[in-house]
């Protein structure tokens, strides 16, 4: 199907299967059970796709990874409700935010310490316009002293620490505390069906324990902060934890994005299976052996720990795999398998990226496929000359 739809295109190029993208969106809404989903932009990085999913009831607002990105989306009219998921040290972006009335009403920046407030003051000067801020609670699991399971994010871990920071924010002129966020990466970002039986059992046990712990601690933190200020939103979760996070009464919205794309890292979850919605085609340029075909380019390695799970994965035709000695290379990527016998020079091999949004950093455009045709070609962030780091 993809070969037919793109027969007039020269690879390398990337496509998005719109039927799969839309079906994944519907599945996220089903799993959210009525709780609104804030779309995580870093998992998409294409304005056309972000605007498409935001037009669907049940998806409300963006979660951006960069303040400069958030300001750009407001300028483009993508969304008027944006949370920046990571603290910023970008003085230029802060000045753009302060100078734009619409952006200041739309964007909430992330803070987890008084030093973040100091940085904003240093960038904007005393007496700056009011900046909306979101307090981040660390959602990692710490079952024993010195044991840390999850992403290393905020130093604010306990309800008391959350209330203390909230008091500090409320005491500072030029800031308005509007929300709280907690990302439980050890649940949302870790598949429980990706390894062997013992590994899966351990991950499943850890996640069950962590779900119970964060639900209690997050609820207590929200109560402590809400006693000081009325919060507009409490954000939590990710594509891998939609059900458990959505079940928490303290959470008002769920963050999700990778579930729209269905990268290979999301093949390893027992409770949901997104359809592969984005993939890229590479041409066969060598036939060094009967069961080996060498592809042009392809070294699109995902961020995270340097291991095989971060490599792209041959998808179509079925039965191909990367060579362990070479992997995916800067200028060539050999694949092997019985299916390679039938590949000729110029044929396409389709691969999937390990992470959802990072493929968009490799291509300036996505060809949007519906059935056996390309419906349109749309720019990624790169195609719009945007690079947010």
Automatic annotation (TrEMBL):
InterPro entries: Ala_racemase_N, D-amino_acid_metab_enzyme, PLP-binding_barrel. Transmembrane segments: none annotated. This is Amino acid aldolase or racemase. Coiled coil: none annotated. Residues 16-261 form the Alanine racemase N-terminal domain. It comes from Amycolatopsis decaplanina DSM 44594. GO terms for biological process: D-serine catabolic process. Signal peptide: none annotated. Pfam families: Ala_racemase_N. SUPFAM superfamilies: PLP-binding barrel (SSF51419). GO terms for molecular function: D-serine ammonia-lyase activity.
């Amino acid at each position: 199907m993809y070969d037919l739809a793109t027969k007039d295109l020269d690879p390398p190029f990337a496509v998005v299967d719109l039927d799969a993208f839309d079906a994944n969106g519907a599945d996220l809404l089903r799993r959210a059970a009525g709780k609104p989903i804030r779309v995580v932009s870093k998992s998409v990085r294409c304005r056309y796709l972000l605007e498409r999913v935001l037009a669907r009831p049940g998806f409300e607002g963006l979660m951006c990874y960069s303040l400069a990105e958030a300001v750009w989306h407001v300028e483009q009219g993508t969304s008027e409700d944006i949370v920046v998921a990571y603290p910023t040290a970008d003085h230029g972006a802060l000045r753009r935010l302060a100078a734009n009335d619409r952006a200041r009403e739309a964007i909430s920046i992330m803070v987890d310490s008084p030093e973040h407030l100091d940085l904003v003051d240093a960038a904007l000067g005393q007496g700056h316009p009011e900046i909306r801020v979101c307090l981040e609670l660390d959602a990692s699991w710490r079952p024993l002293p010195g044991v840390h399971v999850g992403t290393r994010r905020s130093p604010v871990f306990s309800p008391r620490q959350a209330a203390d920071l909230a008091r500090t924010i409320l005491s500072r002129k030029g800031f308005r505390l509007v929300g709280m966020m907690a990302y439980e990466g050890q649940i949302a970002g870790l598949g429980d069906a990706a390894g062997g039986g013992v590994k899966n059992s351990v991950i499943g046990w850890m996640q069950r324990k962590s779900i119970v712990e964060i639900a209690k601690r997050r609820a207590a933190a929200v109560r402590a902060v809400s006693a000081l200020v009325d919060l507009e939103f409490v954000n939590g979760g990710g594509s891998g934890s939609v059900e458990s996070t959505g079940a928490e009464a303290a959470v008002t919205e769920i963050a999700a994005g990778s579930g729209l794309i269905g990268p290979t890292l999301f093949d390893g979850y027992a409770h949901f299976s997104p359809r592969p919605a984005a993939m890229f085609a590479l041409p066969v340029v060598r036939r060094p052996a009967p069961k080996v075909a060498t592809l042009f380019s392809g070294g699109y390695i995902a961020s995270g720990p340097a291991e095989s799970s971060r490599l792209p994965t041959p998808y179509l035709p079925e039965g191909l795999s990367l060579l362990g000695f070479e992997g995916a290379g800067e200028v060539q990527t050999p694949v092997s398998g019985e299916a390679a016998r039938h590949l000729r020079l110029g044929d396409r091999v389709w691969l999937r990226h390990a992470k959802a949004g990072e493929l968009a950093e490799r291509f300036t455009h996505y060809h949007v496929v519906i059935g056996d045709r390309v419906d349109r070609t749309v720019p990624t962030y790169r195609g719009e000359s945007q690079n947010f780091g």
